Amino acid sequence: MHLHRQRLLGGRLIAAVLAAARVLVVIVLHVPPAAAGPVRLIIDTDAGFDVDDVGAVAVANALQDNGEAVIVAVGHTNGFIKGIGAVSTLMHFYNRDEVTLGAYKGVWARNPTAGKGTADRYVSDLVDHYPSTIKNSSQVLDAVSAYRKVLAAQPDHSVHIASIGITTNMRDLIQSKPDRYSPLDGRALVKLKVKLIVWMDMMYVYGGVCMDYVCLLAVLPDKLKRFYTKILPALFAA
């Protein structure tokens, strides 16, 4: 029974990693061979619940090593303040401390117990025992500011977004107002700068995960479908 359980859990872990990594592969394969230069990539991840996000970040770095992608930003989406520290640990391992990092800092993140336990299956181990430049969300921009800063600096219609986690940041980005980084609101900025978004698992993204002390079901199906899928191409990787 114990061996069966280990095999079952191992199979689920492998499936989860492959599902998240598939999002990155879909992005690269979607780019025409004649396209100039590597894919400009933003990774939106809820690292901490499962190891699929670690696999996806590793794949993204491998794609950059191979000249097929350039990671321009990574954002963390759940409320656990150390989550972005785990992302920083991974990026430091690949010698990419210069990549812009951002973290969700909404209501959910202001709860001192947010994410502890369920979203800390490996985060604290990475943050506490391995080198990184960032340890928690207080050391980085909020994810929306990070994304707006990076998007404003990119060529038009050049950025690909891999959404592999809870969609707090994607919701907040599309609803963002003009700021010091861009005179455009979130909808206009995304429409101008983003070429493609690949979402991990349509049912997960649009399934109404209750976080942020407001059930995302109230904003995801209407706002994300209306503002994202109608202004630029979107793919769903199961």
Structure description:
With 238 residues, this protein is an alpha/beta fold. The protein has one domain: Rossmann fold (3-Layer(aba) Sandwich), CATH 3.40.50. 42% of the residues lie in helices and 18% in strands. It is built from 9 helices and 9 strands. The protein has helices spanning 2-30, 52-65, 83-93, 123-129, 143-152, 168-174, 186-193, 202-205, 220-229, and strands spanning 39-45, 69-76, 100-103, 141-142, 159-164, 194-200, 210-211, 214-215, 234-237. The strands form 2 sheets. It has a 7-stranded parallel β-sheet, with helices on both faces. Helix 2 links the parallel strand 1 (39-45) and strand 2 (69-76). Helix 1 runs parallel beside helix 2 (52-65) and helix 3 (83-93) packs across helix 4 (123-129).
Task: Provide a short characterization of the protein structure.
This protein is an alpha/beta fold and 238 residues long. The protein has nine helices and nine strands.
